[in-house]
Amino acid sequence: MPGVTRLSVRNIRKSFGTHEVLRGISLDAEDGDVISLLGASGSGKSTFLRCINMLETASDGEIWVDGEHIEMVHKNGKSKPASQKQVDHIRSELGMVFQSFNLWSHMTILQNVIEGPVHVLKRPRADCIAEAEALLEKVGIADKRHAYPAHLSGGQQQRAAIARALAMKPKVMLFDEPTSALDPELVGEVLRVMRALAEEGMTMLVVTHEMSFARNVSNRVVFMRQGLIESSGKPDEMFTGGATPAFRQFIGHFGSGQ
Amino acid sequence: MPGVTRLSVRNIRKSFGTHEVLRGISLDAEDGDVISLLGASGSGKSTFLRCINMLETASDGEIWVDGEHIEMVHKNGKSKPASQKQVDHIRSELGMVFQSFNLWSHMTILQNVIEGPVHVLKRPRADCIAEAEALLEKVGIADKRHAYPAHLSGGQQQRAAIARALAMKPKVMLFDEPTSALDPELVGEVLRVMRALAEEGMTMLVVTHEMSFARNVSNRVVFMRQGLIESSGKPDEMFTGGATPAFRQFIGHFGSGQ
Amino acid sequence: KDWTKATITLEGAYAPWNLTNADGTLGGFEPELAKVLCERAKIECTLVASDWDGMIPALNAGKFDVIMDALSITEERKQVIGFTIPYAATPAAFATAKDSPLAKAAGTGATIKMTPGQTGVKEIDALKAAFKGKTIGIQAATVYAKFVYDNFGDIAEIREYKTGADRDLDLQNGRIDLGFDDAVYFANAFKSANDTLDFTGPEIVGSIWGEGEGLGIRQADTDLRDKFNEAIKSTLADGTVKNLSMKWFKVDVSPQQ
Amino acid sequence: MDFTFLASTMVTLLKAVPTTLILFSLSIFFGGVLALVIVSMRVSGNPVLSGFAKGYIFVFRGSPLLIQMFLVFYGLGQFGVIRYSFLWPFLREPMVCAVLSLALCTAGYTAEIFRGGIRAVSPKEIEAARSIGMSGFLLVRRILAPIAFRHALPAYSTEIVLMMKSTALASLVTVWEVTGVAQRLISQTYRTMEVFLCAAIIYLVLNFIILQGMALLEYSLSRHRRAAPQPLKA
Amino acid sequence: MASLELLGFGSTGWGALLILATLMTLAVTATALAIGAVLGAIVAAAKLSGNPVFVAFGNVYTTVFRGVPELLIIYLIYFGGSSAITSIGKAMGYEGFLGLPSFAAGALAVGIISGSYQAEVFRGAFLAISKGELEAASAIGMHRGLRFRRIIMPQVLRLAIPGLGNVWQLSLKDSALISVTGLAELMRTSQVAAGSTRQYFLFFIAGGCLYLILTSLSDRIFNRAERRANRSMPASAMGQA
Ligand SMILES: Nc1ncnc2c1ncn2[C@@H]1O[C@H](COP(=O)(O)OP(=O)(O)OP(=O)(O)O)[C@@H](O)[C@H]1O
Ligand SMILES: Nc1ncnc2c1ncn2[C@@H]1O[C@H](COP(=O)(O)OP(=O)(O)OP(=O)(O)O)[C@@H](O)[C@H]1O
Ligand SMILES: [Mg+2]
Ligand SMILES: [Mg+2]
To answer: Membrane topology type, per the record (chains A, B) (predicted)?
Structure first.
């Protein structure tokens, strides 16, 4: 059902102390959108993702997830979510994949994946295990399901983290530089999984430095600069003539890499 | 004075347990040579470098550094250096730059750089500081000289590690994947420094995955495979027609990276 | 209060006054005497072992009702607890190594009687000359400690031990030259030191050591004290104390009235 | 509360503080030196030396200090060999024996703490030192020891405080430090609570000062771990 | 030898009493450790709460009970505790003495001390949990309680094991000081045997050896627990003992 707005963000602002990191960001993601978020280091990409699933509280702005508005209260200059319950619910609808995997080190891969469905969604354990095994099969690490995270390579850990997020059947997946901690060989593995997700129509917001992903997999590219969306558009337009000077300079930098 | 042999290695062998990692490697580096050491993961590149400066003890073979032969004794099946003093001396003539920087965390950058000259070479402190500052200037991090390693970015740390090695005025520099722990932006910084060193005529042996460096900066490419030198030659010859099938397959793999 | 039951505490490690047998039961002079006293006072007694250091505070805290642990009756202690009449009174003396130059000091074998605060005793002055510059070991916070400080504090080095047993070991080791303590206690200690130690100088008796050893009882419990006083009197009168004393100490420690 | 009694108790106890401090500082010093010897044996790689060190640590960590002190003070003198040796003039002194047994005991703990610190030193930093030609004592002095000491500092602070408290046992061997004097006062006055309260305050203050000092040392040795100083914006 | 007979199990042997005393030491230390675990968890939670009042309470607790000699604390609890209970009893109309038994007073005192050390162990373990793993838990919508139960608790327990081993060792030796309450634990029984037989060295050495046996047994248990808990860790982190 393309056309359904899965995620909608209006005019998000965020400051750390006196430093305003996000200066009013708005973005909509519809069903099946794969949005690449590009930008120089420090431009606020991670902060933006963290505001969406409330790991940081935005100072201002509105967020809707799958049509549900996140209620905030403002009290003497500070904002906080009106209901922790709603926050927990919203988070269970947003899958987050961290740059540093953050798998729970005391659980096996399978336990990591079923943890959310069993204890947060309170679904029957047997069903969760069956689904988890299918997911691990899909990301290609089914044989590692009884291993602990510390015994896996970086690429395998990252794929386990993706499976863990998918097991919650999220409406939207948020990826924060899912490949930057990986060596080139492992990058390939993870991108392959993400490409498959995109083809299945999962809505995704991906902070990435992989230009080839931005160009070939995503259907929209958003370029952030100093806490603002400097420009955005279809990958083809962005990477060819239509780019702004700032974006051209940004990708030029990458172009010289090899 | 090109033509002087700075480093000469004959028939080095090394086993871990029953696994023979190096199966007879020979190599000569003359003054000003910049040799790129390529090879798949596990082919023994790091082990080879570590044998040269005796961080591992080769089971067999001979090494000369700047004409000085490293004496070994063989006792009931094991080899070890005849004299720790000679090992210390040889090591001070070989600069090693590690993949993971390995700066001393309890010292500032300047202290890291002067540590060897002052305490190993026992040179006057004031001279060492002056030279160290010049070196830090050269690698572009003079302003960070009083910072601690933990406060530097990866690229800055790696450049500090290079300065630290250079401060010993080594005859030969050994680099073990000096850029693989860095993100693309930082890779550029470090490669720039290495290119400058090459132009000054420093003898260098570089384990790297950066094909552009191998191709454009080094004057010899050595390709290792399963503990042996599979092929070697001038970059032009290696990267164009003259390559062996194994090397062609190896660089093919990289070619598909982007 | 109607005293039909009472708890008596003792250390259980101060042979031969009181000691613990290998089967965990208490034995020695005091446990045997306690049995007789309780029978005569018609009190059902329980004996419990506890540590010397905490005994008096624990009595006042109410953890038990009677202390029977070779407790000398002194003015200071009377400030905080009450006492029965004494059931024993023992002389005190110096001890030294048999092969020490201080052995057989002046007055050895004699007995002198002293009162509290008495000075100018000629036997003591003779010892003072002999013990000049020596080291004397005493058990801290005892009447004997006070005596040694008062009479020898100016001429000898005094070292305080937490227990008499520790001091005896050091006397054997030669770390100190002399010890001063209860003569009955010493006589027993010499045996376990393989008779390498012996008395030296005169035995000192008299009110200087207070009235002797009595039962410690909370000041408020006068009725309990009176019951035990009667019992003690009768055991002294019929020779029970003397018999037990001969059995355990080989000398009579009954207080001389 | 009887304040004049508290005050006079405090004065009596304070007079014993120097003894406590002497016991404490000497045993920390000698215990530290001995710990260095034990730990270098422990990590030497030589099975005999490291076995000895393991046994040492086991015995001195595993048994109560009270027993150790008793055996050192009263036990050693039982042996004629020792009593008639050149050591006796030293071992005769209670203070020497008290410091000896405190130092022997803390050396076992401290050696383990130092070993933990050594294990926390990144092998890579050691390798980097070797690669410029450092080895042996130079390597230990310049790289290993400073990093290991910094790592060991928090655990070492705890051990130092434990040591301060352990000096309380020295009255067993006739060295009358604060706790011993307090116990003696109690057996003279039978006012347990008041006397122990004064003693508790003294130890609390001493330990508080020590911990503050250690925290200061820790702070000054961890500049390399703190956030980088923010450059002032001109 | 006569002295060895004293250690045996015959009618003149102290063997049985020493074994009983060893078990008593074990029991009192284990009880103290359990009391300390509860107190330690509460104090650690207070110190981590961020609430200035709770933090101050936690700091005072750990400073006082680590800074005051154990013996003093044991005395304060043994005598002070009894007076307190007795006066509570009086207030409730009960005339007479209500004492803390030696075992309870001793275990409580050592437990309170042990709690101050355990608080630091737990706090350190909590701080060692990767922040990322906590964020990951929030990110799938785990609420506070669930996060605590599923992510924090298991990891704190694992990370705390080595520290708890040290605390156990400390408490084992602190329990020797309970001898002043007259409880027949190992230290007191050794002293009583020594005083009754006047074989001081024999019984102190025997007592020391029994402590060493307890130490080596408990070391073994803690090592096994640590290995078990660390099975999720990379192989290189294990077996370095
Ligand atoms: N918790 C925080 N406290 C203070 N400042 C912060 C905090 N988190 C982020 N910042 C600042 O906010 C800015 C944006 O950070 P953010 O991590 O969002 O950048 P980014 O675009 O993700 O960069 P990168 O590509 O390096 O990950 C940076 O200047 C950073 O220093
Ligand atoms: N200390 C060691 N003990 C046992 N095996 C080792 C050790 N060090 C290296 N090896 C093995 O030796 C082989 C060569 O390792 P080496 O690190 O030299 O490879 P490499 O060519 O540097 O690979 P990479 O590109 O991944 O760094 C590998 O199979 C490795 O597992
Ligand atoms: Mg980021
Ligand atoms: Mg390598």
So the answer is: Peripheral membrane protein
Query: Does residue B80 belong to any structural domain of this protein?
Result: yes
Q: Could you tell me which CATH number the domain at E18-230 has? A: 1.10.3720.10
Residues from chain D contacting residue C218 (CB–CB below 8 Å): none
The three-state secondary structure class of C170 is helix
Which of the residues E12, E74, E192 would you substitute to probe the C interface, choosing the one with the greatest number of C C-beta atoms within 10 Å?
A: E192
Mutation choice for ligand 2 from B38, B47, B225, CB with most ligand atoms inside 8 A:
B47
How near does any CA of chain E get to the CA of A106, in Å?
6
CATH of span D3-223: 1.10.3720.10
Cβ pair D130:B91 closer than 8 A: yes
Of B169, B198, B181, B222, residue with least CA distance to B28: B222
Which residues in chain D show pLDDT less than 50? Answer: 231-234
Residue type, C141: A
Structurally, how many domains does chain A consist of? 1
- Find all residues with CB under 8 Å of D219, minimum gap 6, and list them: none
Domain ranges of chain D: 3-223
Burial (CB count <10 Å: 0-12, 13-18, 19+), residue E134: middle
pLDDT tens by residue, E128-165: 888 888 888 888 888 888 889 999 998 898 889 888 99
pLDDT at A181: 67
Q: Ligand 2 pocket, B171 CB below 6 A?
A: no
D18 CA to centre of own chain: 17
The pLDDT tens digits for B181-197 are: 676 667 777 888 888 88
CB of D5 within 8 Å of any CB in chain C? no
Q: So where are chain E's domains? A: 18-230
**Stronger pLDDT, E47 or A1, i.e. the higher one:** E47
For chain C, 257 residues long, the average pLDDT of each consecutive 10-residue run is 86 86 88 93 90 81 88 85 91 90 84 84 88 91 87 91 87 90 87 85 86 91 92 91 89 78
Q: C240 vs chain D: nearest CA distance in angstroms?
A: 32
Q: Which of A207, A163, A166, A201 is nearest to A35 (CA)?
A: A207
Residues of D within 8 A of B104 (CB-CB) are 125, 128-129, 143, 147
CATH classification at residue B241: 3.40.50.300
Q: Residue B21 CA: which ligand is closest? A: 2
Among residues B58, B67, B63, B61, the alpha carbon closest in space to that of B30 is found at: B67
- The CA-CA-CA angle for residues C94, C100, C103, to 5°, reads 45
Question: What are the residue ranges in chain A where pLDDT is below 70?
Answer: 1-3, 181, 183-185, 252-258
A12 lies in some domain: yes
- D189 near C CB under 8 A: yes
E79 DSSP 8-state letter: I
Give the DSSP letter string of C65-126: SEE-SS-B--HHHHHHSEE---SB---EEEEEETTSTTTT-TTTT-EEE--TT----HHHHH
> Cβ contact (<8 Å) for E195 and C11?
yes
> pTM for this structure?
0.82
Minimum distance, in Å, between the CA of residue E181 and any CA atom of chain C: 6
When computed from its CA atoms, the radius of gyration of chain B, rounded to whole angstroms, is 18
Nearest to E180 among C19, C51, C62 (CB): C51
* Domain housing A126: 5-253
Question: Which atom number of ligand 2 is nearest to the Cα of residue B45?
Answer: 21
For residue B47, the CA-to-ligand 2 centroid distance in Å is 6
Q: Please check whether residue B258 lies inside any domain of the structure.
A: no
Residue bearing tokens 């304070």: D14
A54 touches A87 (CB < 8 A): yes
Q: Is residue A258 part of a domain?
A: no
**Is the CB of B208 within 6 Å of ligand 2?**
no
D124 and B119: CB-CB below 8 Å? no
Residue owning the nearest CA to atom 2 of ligand 1: A16
